[in-house]
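Private note to self, pasted from the team thread so I don't lose it. Backbone tokens:
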């Protein structure tokens, strides 16, 4: 009798591993161990965290690490709320925290996408969505983007058990105006609509302003991009009281203490330094626009980005070739060998100095 592990591949496995779960995990950007490289492949912020973060770390009482962290995280939530417009009436009960927005979204897949119909997301977007859908056995359908890589709101007027959209989208960087997000919300009153705003601080208007009108809206944010804290792992969702309560209940089924004491202290400090956040974000936007211009002079065509990266293609040189040539020069960008986008590169915005070196390297590559 043939079983699921009767193939030659599984016959070579050690007996005890035959009951292990087989998965296809998310593939993150390359993390080279080399020093003195220009790393523009994982959308990290090129600037250090706020000086208030350094101050918070120096004043952190290490004795507290012997204790479990707070699972309420009230000081951090209060600091976040202080950054929202008062008209939104966001309360602590409307905020759900997790170890980076990846954990928050993973819990959304477990908690809010439990219907019998398919959930919907674009065919070109953050590739982790498909990984989570498969991992948690959530039925899904990908909705094609238009030829210009923008979303088609009309395509989301079909039966579904939920919708998730990255806005600005990844890896394209394209921002969908709030009127389109609202069209999707209006057309899907019985479904949760999640807007993943990992890059919203670099352009566009947040969907937060729609929260008072639509209880089925969930907005997800992260500290990894505009807050310079990819290494501390803080993410959060803003949603209705009922939605957050469901997320908390599922989270507490396996881990009540998701955010460490250190993460909470650092997250609170970063949220309070509004001026540093404004200055560094504006600096990245300015560098992005300058880089797009310089790329155009070299024969690149870039999509209109509202993120901290550029999605670009060259008029004659293949993206795969440029990608490999840049690596030889210790400059790392992101290449996706996938249908429709196989000839594009995603380039994170670094410091002005890093981007100048990138442009110089590209100049020599495209002229070779």
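Design output:
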């Amino acid at each position: 009798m043939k079983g699921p592990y009767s193939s030659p591949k599984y016959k070579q496995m050690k007996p005890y591993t035959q009951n292990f779960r087989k998965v296809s995990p998310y593939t993150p950007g390359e993390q080279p161990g080399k020093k003195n490289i220009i790393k523009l492949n994982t959308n990290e912020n090129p600037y250090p965290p706020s000086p208030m973060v350094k101050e918070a770390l120096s004043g952190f009482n290490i004795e507290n690490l012997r204790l479990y962290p707070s699972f309420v995280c009230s000081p951090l939530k209060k600091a976040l709320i202080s950054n929202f417009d008062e008209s939104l009436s966001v309360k602590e009960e409307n905020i759900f925290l997790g170890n980076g927005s990846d954990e928050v979204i993973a819990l959304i897949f477990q908690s809010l996408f439990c219907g019998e119909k398919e959930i919907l997301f674009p065919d070109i977007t953050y590739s982790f969505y498909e990984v989570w859908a498969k991992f948690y056995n959530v039925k899904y359908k990908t909705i094609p983007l238009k030829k210009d890589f923008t979303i088609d709101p009309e395509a989301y007027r079909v039966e579904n058990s939920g919708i998730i959209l990255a806005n600005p989208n990844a890896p394209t960087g394209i921002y969908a105006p709030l009127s389109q997000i609202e069209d999707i919300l209006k057309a899907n009153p019985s479904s949760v609509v999640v807007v993943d705003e990992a890059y919203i601080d670099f352009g566009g208007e947040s969907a937060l302003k729609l929260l008072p009108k639509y209880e089925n809206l969930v907005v997800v944010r992260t500290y990894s991009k505009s807050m310079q804290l990819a290494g501390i792992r803080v993410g959060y969702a803003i949603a209705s009281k009922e939605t957050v309560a469901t997320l908390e209940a599922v989270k507490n089924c396996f881990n009540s203490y998701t955010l460490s004491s250190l993460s909470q202290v650092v997250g609170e400090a970063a949220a309070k330094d509004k001026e540093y956040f404004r200055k560094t974000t504006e600096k990245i936007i300015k560098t992005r626009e300058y880089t797009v211009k310089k790329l155009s002079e070299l024969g690149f065509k870039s999509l209109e980005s509202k993120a901290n990266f550029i999605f670009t293609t060259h008029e004659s040189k293949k993206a795969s070739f440029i990608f490999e040539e840049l690596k030889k020069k210790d400059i790392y960008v992101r290449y996706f060998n996938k249908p429709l986008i196989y000839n594009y590169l995603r380039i994170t915005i670094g410091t002005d100095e890093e981007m100048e070196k990138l442009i110089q390297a590209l100049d020599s590559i495209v002229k070779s």
